[in-house]
Design brief:
The chain is α+β, with helices and mostly antiparallel strands. Helices cover 34% and strands 26% of the residues. The radius of gyration is 24 Å and the shape is globular. It starts with a helix and ends with a helix.
Length: 305
């Protein structure tokens, strides 16, 4: 099945990224072999146009200008951990696979993404134009609805939800809001600039989830896991800092460095008896408090009340 121009451009970017350095002749061969354009060749003129388009999207592809005249991605970090381009490439890959699978659609299940997507286009438009947005936000637990004016710096997708992150003018500090709890969002004429000190790529580097409380220190965390659970943690790391520092037939020990927030505590609790936090002691104490409270729910005397 032929791909659209954006998909073809991203295919070229990913091919160059995965190869490190690759000549146009090699790219053209892969283009034919993988039937990117239903078997049609990739002319040099079209290739050049895709490179221009890639540059407009932030992918800087250059040529060695000597030897084999191979192409390489000058900013490979654009396709590394946690970035939207890498996520988009994954989506394109899945899309390409599923596009020929509609005859078995009833045997393929996916997770639903909650509401909030109706605001996504408006937020992205405001981000592109550097315009402030106003909206009503409902705080879970308090059912409180409050109007906010925000300079939208970035978007983050986490736990099947979209979040907008930016400077809240009412609080005069950075805040994060889930789009599925937002209503009556609209773009204003107020123009803003993003401080040079802000970097979206590293903003959540020390976090697990969407909380970003600088009052919490970055801590070294060591967790023990059963062999089976270790396989899951190894296959889908909890955090980019994760390292497996010990591995035996009976257990594995992983080490991470991050700020401990409720999202991380809930994740560890979800593993039950298959994971134990070895340090820090402060996190062990918090987990013990949560576990004790949970145990009380199932106490026979508590159930009898």
């Amino acid at each position: 099945m032929a791909r659209n121009s954006t998909e073809k451009m991203m295919w070229i970017v990913n091919t160059i990224y995965e190869a490190g350095c690759i000549s146009l002749k090699q790219i053209q061969k892969k283009w034919i072999d993988e039937r990117v354009a239903d078997g049609n060749p990739l002319p040099r003129r079209s290739f050049t146009n895709y490179l221009v388009k890639a540059g407009e999207e932030g992918f800087w592809i250059e040529n060695e200008n000597s030897g084999e005249y191979r192409y390489f991605l000058r900013n490979p970090q654009a396709l590394e951990r946690g970035g939207m381009p890498r996520w988009y490439l994954n989506i394109l890959s899945v899309k390409q696979t599923l596009s020929t699978s509609f005859q078995i659609y009833d045997r393929i299940q996916v997770e639903d993404v909650p509401s909030g997507q109706e605001h996504l286009e408006d937020v992205i438009k405001a981000m592109k134009e550097f315009h402030a947005i106003t909206f009503d936000h409902t705080h879970y637990g308090r059912e409180e609805v409050k109007e906010h004016t925000l300079h939208p710096y970035m978007l983050k997708f986490w736990g099947q939800r979209w979040y907008v992150v930016g400077l809240d003018l009412g609080y005069n500090k950075m805040r994060t809001y889930s789009l599925d709890r937002i209503a009556y969002l609209h773009e204003t004429d107020e123009v803003f600039t993003i401080p040079e000190t802000f970097c979206a790529a590293t903003y959540f580097n020390n976090e697990f989830g969407v909380f970003h409380d600088l009052s919490h220190p970055v801590e070294k965390i060591r967790i023990w896991a059963t062999p089976v659970q270790a396989c899951y943690i190894r296959g889908l790391p909890l955090h980019w800092t994760q390292e497996e520092i010990e591995r035996t037939n009976e257990y594995s020990i992983f080490e991470l460095r991050l700020r401990v927030e409720i999202d991380f505590i809930q994740k560890i609790l979800s593993y039950g008896k298959d994971v134990e936090v070895l340090e820090p002691q402060s996190l062990r104490d918090k987990l013990k408090e949560h576990a004790k409270a949970m145990l009380e729910f199932y106490d026979p005397e508590s159930l009898a009340k």
